[in-house]
Amino acid sequence: MNLDTRVPAVETLGVLETAALLRELTAGLIAVDDFDAALAALVRIARDAVDGVTWCGFTALRAGEPAGVAASDARLAGLDDLRHGPDTPAMEAIRRREMIRSEHLGRERRWPTWTLRARDLGVHGVISAPVDVDEQVIGAINLYAGASDALTTGHQLTAMLLAEHAGLLLAAVRDRARQAALAGERDASVLGDGVVGQAIGVIMTQRGCPAPEALEVLRTAASSLSIPLREVAERLVNTVSRQRDG
Question: Which of 32, 79, 179, 180 is the most buried (most CB within 10 A)?
């Protein structure tokens, strides 16, 4: 007996669409180092890539900072913020650490105030999936449908994979932001060193480049010669001084 073990076309399409979504999301966030910009890219990509999803939002809770919100449509941004208190799909997903789904808001009783506002804005279905970013940030990605019963179990799987992938990418974004901030502090400290500042000025004059590029030239030279940055700067300044005196 021959058994047809081929995956149904609709299921295959869902897998391919999800793979394309994760690939596009990675490409869109891989070089970003601003968290809010990353959230904006995330909701835009998810809205455009997931069939049946009309809008997408993100609710982020950051320790010691105001809650962050991103929305693919500014008109719906209020659905993702905290003005409705804990009675929203996003906050329930965050609190319970599990996916929340309502495919027909006309029959929904869990979040009365939020649901009334959502329906007034044309939202008829929602999936909220919790997103763990790092020890300081948690959140939920919210997929909204403009029609009832448009969100299926397939969308739940996509939302779960999207949340997992987004968490990893957003954690990397925050790490890059921290590294950039530390690098900026180190650069400010280095630039405060008189002889290094003089050397940077020399390189800027010689090459017609900005200070960050001149500093990188010094760092490259120090690495190549395996000597401290300050010693490279001193050698350059002394060389230039001797040329001027000569």
Answer: 79
Q: Is the pLDDT of residue 57 over 50?
A: yes
Q: How far apart are CA 146 and CA 96, in angstroms?
A: 25
pTM: 0.71
Distance (Å, rounded) from C-alpha 2 to C-alpha 236?
79
In order of their start, the domains of the chain are 9-178 (3.30.450.40), 192-245 (1.10.10.10)
Q: Whose CA is closest to 142, among 178, 213, 88?
A: 88
pLDDT tens-place string over residues 99-118: 999 999 999 999 999 999 99
Beta bridge partners of 137: 62
**Angle, to 10 degrees, between the axis of helix 153-191 and the axis of helix 194-207?**
100
Tokens of 199: 């050397």
Classify strands 125-132 and 137-145 as parallel, antiparallel or unpaired: antiparallel
Measuring CA to CA, how many Å separate 162 from each of 98, 126, 127?
Answer: 14, 15, 12
- Give yes or no for residue 199 having a pLDDT over 90: no
Q: Which amino acid is at 42?
A: L
Tell me 88's DSSP state. Answer: S
CA dist 106 and 135 (Å) reads 37
- Whether 71 shows a pLDDT value over 90: the answer reads yes
pLDDT at 7 over 50: no
Which amino acid makes up residue 45? I
- Mean pLDDT, the chain, whole residue set: 85
In one-letter notation, the amino acid at residue 200 is: I
Task: Say whether 176 sits in a helix, a strand or coil.
Answer: helix
162 vs 139: CA distance, rounded Å: 13
